[in-house]
Design brief:
single chain, alpha/beta, 8-stranded mixed beta sheet
Length: 324
């Protein structure tokens, strides 16, 4: 399991950053883009408009032909969570038996309530599903700034081999077999980051921000336990680590969405994964009697069932209780 040839499906900011990162690790990388014009631009300029000023590594070959994915020993699906099923179906005719397919999106599919590796397993039954998640911004990874993430696969040996293949001095994947825990951390933190953004946009102060992150993590942990996540995964990079990053920086689309809502704007939520995940996650929480008041409030705000002020009041007037 050397994984010397890697395909990255999706040439947005995250896919392009991962492609260059993996190439710097010494792998031959194929970067697939759906848009022919985007492929031509990448070939001509060696720069993505999503990552201005960052040149694509010379080992990365940009392509618009899905047949080129067939040569890969592992595939990274760097597309948004709600588009992952479509991408998996597209590569299905070109994928070899037993090839690891790594989801690089953080979310839960609307309608089916399926996690990313479940979609891969359903659409690509011959693949080995895996997930890459953790505190990472595309621009940091593209520039080669120090970043640590988590890579999970049900097979320990595959997870370890993938971590070695993708890892570089400034990009450190820690491996685990707790696939569900990694997926839950990535999905839940996006919803909580919207709440953190609202706190910032409403100028509620640093104390409120700290309380939001702490109580939000309690929600994430309760949800994780209900769905079989390991505690050490939830307190690791893909859980607590990613929550801290995403709840504290305007580089996060989810945090920025929350800031706009807190300032009284009506932003376009389509680029924020948490906007799609909120309703699904709260439905799943209700199914297992998991208390998630912050997430429920965010889902209601996004559905325009509750104003931002009413959501804040609903949280501040909850009964006093023991911490836990």
């Amino acid at each position: 399991m050397a994984f010397d040839r890697i395909a990255v499906v999706g040439a947005g900011a995250w896919g392009t950053a991962l492609a260059s990162c993996v190439a710097r690790a010494g792998r031959d990388v194929t970067l697939w883009a759906r848009d022919a014009a985007a492929v031509a631009a990448l070939v001509a300029t060696r720069e993505s408009p999503r990552l201005p000023g960052v040149r694509l590594d010379p080992r990365v070959a940009a392509t618009g032909a899905l047949a080129d994915v067939a040569q890969a020993q592992a595939v990274l699906l760097a597309v948004p969570a709600q588009e992952l099923r479509v991408a998996a179906r597209a590569i299905a005719p070109h994928l070899g038996q037993g090839v690891p397919v790594v989801a690089c999106a953080k979310g839960i599919e609307r309608g089916t309530r399926k996690f990313m590796t479940e979609i891969i397993g359903e659409v690509l039954p011959g693949a080995r599903p895996a997930i890459l998640s953790g505190p990472s911004f595309a621009i940091d990874v593209a520039r080669g700034l120090p970043t640590a993430v988590t890579l999970a696969c049900a097979e320990d040996a595959t997870a370890a081999a993938l971590a070695r293949a993708l890892g570089a001095p400034t990009f450190r994947p820690y491996h685990t077999s707790d696939v569900r825990g990694v997926e839950i951390g990535g999905a839940a933190k996006n919803v909580l980051a919207i709440a953190a953004g609202i706190v910032h946009g409403r100028r509620l102060g640093a104390s409120a921000a700290a309380a939001l992150v702490t109580r939000g993590f309690a929600e994430l942990a309760r949800f994780g336990r209900a769905y079989g996540a390991r505690p050490e995964t939830l307190t690791g990079l893909s859980g607590l680590g990613d929550l801290v990053l995403t709840c504290s920086s305007p580089q996060s689309r989810n945090f920025s969405l929350g800031v706009a809502l807190g300032e009284g704007h009506a932003p376009d939520a389509r680029l924020a994964e948490g906007a799609f995940t909120a309703a699904v996650m709260t439905e799943m929480a209700r199914d297992r009697n998991v208390e998630m008041p912050i997430s429920v409030a965010i889902a209601a705000v996004l559905a325009r069932q509750l104003s931002v002020d009413a959501a804040i009041e609903s949280l501040l007037t909850r009964p006093f209780r023991a911490e836990g």
